[in-house]
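sorry for the late reply, my laptop died twice this morning and i had to redo everyting from scratch. anyway the thing you sent over, i finally got around to it. pasting the sequence first so we're on the same page, its 330 residues, then the predicted structure underneath. double check i copied it right bc i was rushing
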Amino acid sequence: MDSFTTRLHQTFLSGEARQKILAFASLIVMILVFSLANENFFQADNLIGILQATAINGVLAIASTFVIITSGIDLSVGTLMTFTAVITGVVLTNLHMPIWVGVLAAIGVGGLCGLTSGWLIAKLKLPPFIATLGMMMLLKGLSLVISENKPIYFNDTPGFSSISLDSLIGNFIPFLPIPNAVLILFVLALVASKILSSTIFGRYTFALGSNEEAVRLSGVNVDGWKMAVYAFAGAICGIAGLLIASRLNSAQPSLGQGYELDAIAAVVIGGTSLSGGVGSILGTIIGAFIMSVLTNGLRILSVAPEWQIVVTGLIIIIAVYTDILRRKQR
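ok and here's the structure:
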């Protein structure tokens, strides 16, 4: 009995578990505060808007989780999302291909771009920050070039909006019209969590972040696995591209930059360490909801946009400092 109590005590007092509990408690407090401050916060339309915003940021944050666990960083997730949306627009609107071809194109191009970033990091030994910063600018430019600096609308593909805006759950439960984008987020989170916790791919993802040199000395193809992680993250960004394009019913080539900061903030708030080797999908989803609720709540309270940016910056600084404190404790 004492042994069981000790294990239980250690589990709940671990740094990662404490961070998740603290993040979830912060989310609940934020929801209560904003609800009391403005009655419009708990309106159904506003809650649906929070869910929609969380779906896109959450998918990008899931992609970032895998990369950050390897002790890397990917600054290109936002512009990669935009680039895959533009590619989808070209395939569906300009080439008049079926929707499923557009979906495969977005995910495939996302995976290819992620693989390219991984190759730059693993083979050319570029620092992840520099490699993905360059990829971010490259993809931003290509999005503008391919789209001729104009939005690509999906008016000729009426079923495309169903990817994000329709509600499959609402067809069965009319009083619960949760958008498909949110359903996709949670399904993706469950799959990603299973991959991270129960597969060789997940184990090597953690191993690369914990001690890459030890993994290399054990005979593992470190470069190959690192490229695979970035390719997998890129494919997930392709899903985010589909969601935002479906939600807007258009591919907006000027969007994307800035999303990477919200995604990274969500990952760190959720307990994933920037030094690598520690992280979870559950924590990331909680972090994504915190970012969406904070942004929406400040907007509901009519806080000026420039101050919203200030608050978001402070949240990122606090999250990173908390991560530093956790590393010192370990």
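The chain has one domain: 18-329.
thats about all i looked at so far, will dig more tmrw
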